[in-house]
From TrEMBL:
It comes from the Bacteria. InterPro entries: Cas1 (IPR050646), CRISPR-assoc_Cas1 (IPR002729), CRISPR-assoc_Cas1_C (IPR042206), CRISPR-assoc_Cas1_cyanobact (IPR023843), CRISPR-assoc_Cas1_N (IPR042211). Mn(2+) binds at residues 158, 224, 239. This is CRISPR-associated endonuclease Cas1. It comes from Geitlerinema calcuttense NRMC-F 0142.
Length: 334
């Protein structure tokens, strides 16, 4: 089953034998075996029984809390793995070390190459569009990555490439009922930005779970500078997956009319836009289906799901930081 999403306000999450149950208004909404659960995400307000908390901790299943709008609140985290060697290598590489710069090169290269591939695919699908300028700007940002030795300079390349990609974003939206005014985060004030922010929050939950399994400290990143309470490494590893998973789901939902403007609601004071309960169910189902879709991993040479790829990439990063491989290979899908 993968991740369990609880969207019903004031739900009660309980445990019966080896199963998680979700009830609301004395009605059973969900009954699923724990063996099928990789993670639990609560959207909105819910009560979690002590028995469920104990079971999730023992089985090393993360529990994340998000606002109904997708804003991340926090998570219940099982104990770190005992692999101190991974964390030692992670901390040893902190700062402007050669290893840190190499890791950041991988994160930025993966993200920008996947952006470029997405625009090239869109250009092939719709030759009447003129995306060449954005594609060229991305190529200009990708070209100097291997010869850039400063993390700040690599951040600049990442920013330039992202700006080029989002500059072309409106042309990738085929549904004329949706518009993209530019990337707006806090809060998202239109449906497209709402989906992006919500999807990235879900992706953060999944990536953080993967790096905890491998044994990393999620708060020590390289591309994302240290900030109290921010899981920098989870955000680092997210970068290459943003276009592959979240952006792909957003385009599918909008362009194939899985969601319509009526599936969104706006908060009257802040203007924050979020999904309605019905829209939320549709988007969560699409996100979960994307995570479970299979492809051939270009490095491992075997079929895997995106859910599995999160952990594969975390393990490849661990191998790189521990000196077992010469370069961190980001996941780039052609």
């Amino acid at each position: 089953m993968g991740t369990v999403y609880i969207t019903h306000e004031d739900a009660f999450i309980g445990k019966t034998d080896e199963r998680i149950t979700v009830k609301a208004n004395k009605q059973l909404l969900l009954d699923v075996p724990l063996i099928k659960v990789d993670g639990v995400v609560v959207l909105g307000r819910a009560t979690v029984s002590p028995a469920v908390v104990m079971e999730l901790l023992e089985k090393r299943i993360p529990l994340s809390f998000l606002m109904a709008t997708g804003r991340y609140l926090g998570r219940l985290e099982p104990e770190m793995t005992k692999n101190i060697f991974v964390r030692a290598a992670q901390w040893e590489a902190s700062g402007e070390s050669e290893r840190a710069v190499g890791a950041v090169r991988g994160f930025v290269r993966g993200k920008l190459k996947n952006y470029r591939i997405a625009l090239l695919r869109r250009q092939r699908e719709a030759p009447e569009l003129d995306l060449q300028r954005g594609i060229q700007r991305l190529e200009d940002a990708i070209a100097p990555i291997d010869t850039t030795h400063s993390i700040n300079s690599l951040r600049g390349l990442e920013g330039a490439g992202s700006a080029a990609y989002f500059g072309c974003f409106p042309q990738s939206i085929k549904n004329t009922l949706f518009h993209f005014p530019g990337r707006r985060r806090r809060p998202p004030t239109d449906p497209v930005n709402s989906l992006l922010s919500f999807g990235y929050a879900l992706l953060r939950h999944d990536i953080q779970g993967a790096i905890n399994i491998v044994g990393f400290d999620p708060y020590l990143g390289y591309l994302h500078v240290e900030r109290y309470g921010r899981p920098g490494l989870a955000l680092d590893l997210m970068e290459e997956f943003r276009p592959l998973v979240v952006d792909a789901v957003v385009f599918n939902a909008i362009n194939n009319q899985k969601l319509t403007p009526s599936d969104f609601t706006a908060e009257p004071i802040s203007g924050a836009v979020s999904l309605t309960p019905d829209g939320l169910k549709i988007f969560l189902r699409m996100y979960e289906e994307k995570k479970q879709s299979k492809f051939k991993h270009p490095v491992m040479g075997r079929q895997c799901t995106y859910q599995e790829a999160f952990e594969i990439q975390a393990r490849l990063l661990a191998k790189y930081l521990m000196g077992e491989i010469d370069q961190y290979p980001p996941l780039v899908r052609k």
